[in-house]
Write a structure and sequence with these properties.
311 residues; alpha/beta; six-stranded mixed beta sheet; three-stranded mixed beta sheet; 10 helices; 12% strand
Amino acid sequence: MHFALPPRKTSHPPPYAPRSSRSPFLRKSRSPFLLLILCCILVIAFLFLRLFTATSGPPPGTPSVVIVTPLDHKAYSKEYLDKIQENRIYYAEQHGYKCFFPSVADYDLAGAPMGWARVPATRHAMTLNPHSTFFFHLSQNSLIMNPSLSIEDHVMSVSRLEEIMLRDKPVVPPDSVIKTFPHLRGENVDLVLTQDSEGLSQGSFILRQGDWSKFFLDTWFDPLYRAYNFQKAEGHALEHVVQWHPTILAKLALVPQRLINSYNNDSPGHDDTILYADNDFVIHLSGCKNNARRDCESELETFYRLWKSNV
């Protein structure tokens, strides 16, 4: 069987078709080239955004300090708590701060005493105010008496901390073997506490925003400590945490008590050096709710009237 041979090529091919104005190479390389340009633009925009957000600081109107006061609406009258809130709000308005008044009932304490609510309340405030710098916890048994004093100038500026820190001081008086760091620098302080003659006072403390402070609060609120049944509940748990966790002790500054936590005459654990005097920042009616012979509301009224007469 014979197959037909393919036709022989002609010796006179037709003229070439007109050449396209764009070479095939350019047509094929155009898409990757444009994609590369787009990627470069996106990278530059991302870097610019990161640079802008890193240097822009907190949003406008962000308060530098948040005052945290958990309120127990079952244990105190509305009139009493209204006075506490009025006092905090007035102070906050003088300095551009913010107040946070959660209810102690907002937090699941798993049967622990209500005093524990100060810990998740402060942690809650940090979550709600991620750009604020300081968180000033002040108990509902305290009153700010000298609203002219700012947290930064009175306590938390680096130069001020260098001046007022109690270095190499027993953490739990009078003779704890664990002492505050002797060489702690002001810029490394994230927690400010006071102590009375019986131990650390948790009614008034200041925390700096950051991962360390969140770690500290989470450690303090550990379910093991809440279930341990310490005699003074969160107070003894705080002393345990500070003394036996060097990571926490390394950021702690003790300051003289009257700077942020003066006591009245009826408060336990006081001596003449920590009793309230004119122009002190805060009066704390320490223990007024734990003693049947004391009445928080009548004790507050004396200092509330004094405060009102001066504002």
